[in-house]
Amino acid sequence: MEKKVIIITGASRGIGKEIAKQLAEEGNIIIANYNKSEEQAKQLKKELEEKGKEIEIYKADVSKEEECKKIVEYTIKKYKKIDVLINNAGIDKLQLIIDVTKKDWDNIINTNLYGAFCMSQQAAKNMIQNKNGKIINISSIWGQIGASMEVVYSISKAGIDGLTKALAKELGPSGIQVNSIAPGFIQTEMNTDFSKEEIDNIKEEIPLQKLGESADIAKCIKWLIDDSYVTGQVISINGGWSIT
Ligand code: NAP
């Protein structure tokens, strides 16, 4: 089977790193984007190359148009195609709405929402030509049901789900599938602000009584990459936390 060329944004840590590992293990060519965590990205590359897997790491700040363009141009120049784009890079900040500054808004919206939009826009040009491609956006439970003290983050993720649905309609006729995955609480550095007591309380609220793992998200990504008829969906992976 021909190897798939897969760009993953924010692959230096957390969920993105696990996705990179699992997709590399399957024999795909991984372009793992990072921004600040260079050492961790280098470590990931070393670890996978020692196992004979194909991975490149690429520094780019996805909140900036020029940097999104560069990573896509680099990939197409070298590999001629992009089979899968996974928009995973994201940031959060816990704060009351009355404390949110314009800078906070710009940071979160530009990274989480504009980054996914811009990467999709750049990659879509190649996917449309190839009449083939998959875009998978990592959204959040908070885009669906809203989170107190995470207003801007919730807005960015609701925007991601809008992007997913609109793009699925626009790109479907070109053979491109676009979906969102909306995780619940996954144990990564993004959640280091929570105390043990807060985490125990959260576990009690979740019907399955446990937090998710990055591997749960990677499993769904592999399934979406295999699939040929699901598009425009927001897939919840949250232990039942969003059941109303
Ligand atoms: P994480 O451990 O904090 O990792 C975030 C990743 O995003 C890092 O690799 C980071 O790269 C990258 N990133 C941040 N800003 C970037 C930028 N401007 N350009 C490129 N990369 C950037 O977070 P995570 O928990 O793995 O989250 C991954 C995704 O899942 C995010 O979209 C998040 O919103 C979503 N999510 C997470 C949870 C959860 O409970 N953890 C729940 C729902 C949704 P550098 O360190 O190299 O800058």
Give a verbal description of the structure.
With 244 residues, the chain is an alpha/beta fold. 48% of the residues lie in helices and 16% in strands. Strand 2 (29-34), helix 2 and strand 3 (54-59) form a beta-alpha-beta unit. It starts with a strand and ends in a 7-residue tail after the last strand. The model has no long low-confidence stretch (mean pLDDT 98). The site of NADP nicotinamide-adenine-dinucleotide phosphate has 29 residues, from helix 1 and strand 2.
In short:
The chain is of the alpha/beta class. It has eight helices and seven strands.
Set down the secondary structure blueprint:
Elements: E1 5-8, H1 14-25, E2 29-34, H2 38-50, E3 54-59, H3 65-79, E4 84-87, H4 102-130, E5 133-138, H5 141-145, H6 151-171, E6 176-183, H7 196-205, H8 214-226, E7 234-237
Parallel strand pairs: 1-2, 1-4, 2-3, 4-5, 5-6, 6-7
Helix pairs in contact: 1-8, 3-4, 4-6
The chain binds NADP nicotinamide-adenine-dinucleotide phosphate.
What are the key terms here?
244 residues, single chain, seven-stranded parallel β-sheet, binds NADP nicotinamide-adenine-dinucleotide phosphate, alpha/beta, 48% helix
- Give the oligomeric state of the chains in this entry, treating copies of one chain as homo and distinct chains as hetero: single chain
- In the sheet with the most strands, the strands line up as 3-2-1-4-5-6-7
Number of helices: 8
Q: Give the cofactors and ligands.
A: NADP nicotinamide-adenine-dinucleotide phosphate
